[in-house]
Amino acid sequence: MNFRSLILIISFVFSLILAGMNFYYERDFPTFIFILILSFILSFSLLNYVFQKFVYERIKSVYKLIHNLKLGKELKDALGDHKSDDPIGDAEKEVRDWAKQKASEIDQLKAQEKFRKEFLSNISHEFKTPLFAIQGYIETLQDGMMEDNPEMAVNFLNKASRNLDRLSYLIHDLDEIAKLESGAVLIEKEKFDLQVLIKETLDDLEYKANEQNIVLDFSSKGNHPIFVKADRKKIQQVLVNLIDNSIKYGKRNGKTSIKTHPLIDQILIEITDNGVGIEEKNLPRVFERFFRTDKSRSREIGGSGLGLAIVKHIIEAHHQNVHVRSTEGIGTTFSFTLEKA
Ligand code: ADP
């Protein structure tokens, strides 16, 4: 019910009581009608005036204020002024909508804040581990190990150097992910033969696979070129990260297979290993930054914990999909799509 109908009802009830009281004493029907009409007109005009002046105008200005704040001045100017007969109802609706919108904004900010805190604590943890290790090795070397046990000293220097490598991967990957997230990195698509790129990448990683005695197998039907439209350098990074993981988390004497499958207007690339696998509960989280399935093992192996986050960013920037399936102890398959050229 809007407020004008309310005034109408109040005025009518008031006039009816007044005219009714008069009729009770005078018993004169025409006078009853006259008083009813006159008091109705007077009370309605008076109430209407009072409401307009003291309630309606004020509520309307509150409503306008909320409406303008909610929309922002520019949008409000573009939409023009909103007029309604029911400013109380409008104001209530605006306040409800506003409160809902603010609550969801607050939830979003809280989630971002939580994410920021986690991210900072992850980063400092990731940096601290290799840094403290390097510090420890250097202090031991300074304490005279060079002279006392030169063989052990060389071993410590090698360990320090591996930790320095880890720091440098971390900085490189953080830099990469920051650039990808800020949109500073543009995806420059070109037509290229995916088959050639996969072979190049396998050549680069051959030495690493040999260390673990892992066979890198690429079977593409018919040796025909597979033309795709994508950013060649970025896709090389995706391949390096995925194949490198298949070696890091693969079994000694194991195998990594790379397969391509043509779809309607995409190419599906699958990288399968027969390594340690990933627990089902961890599968949805492997693309998160710094997420590691088994902290101790992953740390022992090294890596920044950002490799898969980078993969996901690159593939999504191409508007394509990346997916993982895995069985613990049996192996893992990462797959992604690319646009056919
Ligand atoms: P990392 O630098 O630790 O390798 P990634 O982002 O590349 O970081 O991978 C995140 C985690 O996902 C790894 O620490 C590992 O636990 C798990 N993971 C990634 N690839 C594989 C794989 N092929 N097999 C088993 N686990 C994997």
From TrEMBL:
Keyword Glycosyltransferase in record: no
Reactions catalysed according to its record: ATP + protein L-histidine = ADP + protein N-phospho-L-histidine
E.C. code: 2.7.13.3
Membrane-spanning ranges: 7-25, 31-51
PROSITE patterns for the chain: HIS_KIN
Molecular function GO labels: ATP binding
SUPFAM superfamilies listed in its UniProt record: ATPase domain of HSP90 chaperone/DNA topoisomerase II/histidine kinase, Homodimeric domain of signal transducing histidine kinase
Name of a matching Pfam family: HisKA
The keyword Membrane is annotated on this UniProt entry: yes
Domain named Histidine kinase: residues: 122-341
Entry keyword set: ATP-binding, Kinase, Membrane, Nucleotide-binding, Phosphoprotein, Transferase, Transmembrane, Transmembrane helix, Two-component regulatory system
PANTHER family xrefs: PHOSPHATE REGULON SENSOR PROTEIN PHOR (PTHR45453)
Protein name: histidine kinase
